[in-house]
User: What shape does this take?
Amino acid sequence: MSKSDLETWATRQFTHLVHQGHQVFVKDAGEGEALLCLHGYPYSSWQWRKLWPGLTQRYRTIAPDMIGCGLSDKPRDFNYNIPAQADLMVDLLTQLGVSEVHVLAHDYGVSIAQELLARNQEGQPGPRIRSVCFLNGGLLPEKFRERLEHRMIRQRGMQVALLFDGESYVRSIGALYAKETRPPEDELLLDWELQTRNGGLFVADKIFHFLEERINNRERWVGAMQKAKVPLRLINGAADPIAGESMAEHYADTVPNADVVSLKNIGHYPHLECPEQVLRALAEFHEPAG
Assistant: This one.
């Protein structure tokens, strides 16, 4: 992937929507049942690039850059908590005329998916969730292994975030891939470029508090998975050092009738490390609903 690929991503099959006065970049392409793709942090919709052709052949695929991320606005005064990002997703889907949606979520996005699932169970307004497919993320906070740099940003604030540069980003993010599937440095730097556009580092400390939110909302968010009446699947890169095999095993012990696809020798980014396997697992998961 090159910078020209990134620019193509940023200029095709997208729309700009407005939420609470903030501009939000949304990729929207394909036909069929709606699929909402919730990216991780510090990432953006660009992380779905390797799945995009396959997803848009089967679904109307909607992939927003959350506020604070990618090509969306990054205001310092926004309330960067999970309920606020869930509000954003409900608003965007409503604006796009989507009343029912499947969800594919990774990393930061899994907590937003859990919150949306809980709201559906409570009968709150918003599109009906038809299914949720999780990729690697902190579904069960007691099994999530927080990185030192994330803890430092969360605890010490923006001053620490501003010490990061492209080299430290590549070192930190690269360590979450399996060695065999780690992308070249220049590809990782494209993610860094997106995240730092328009002052992204100035909101990192606010966003990283989602790690605390997972602990504080464990009963609600884990309970939403345990009570789910819609299909759930976890596609898990087992070699992920922060949410890998032990997370998947605990998920299987915690969620009734757990549906887990374990990918050996794959790290934190299955959708980037083995996209064809993820597409196949997602298609098999949705086959009964198709």
Remarks:
- The longest helix spans residues 108-122.
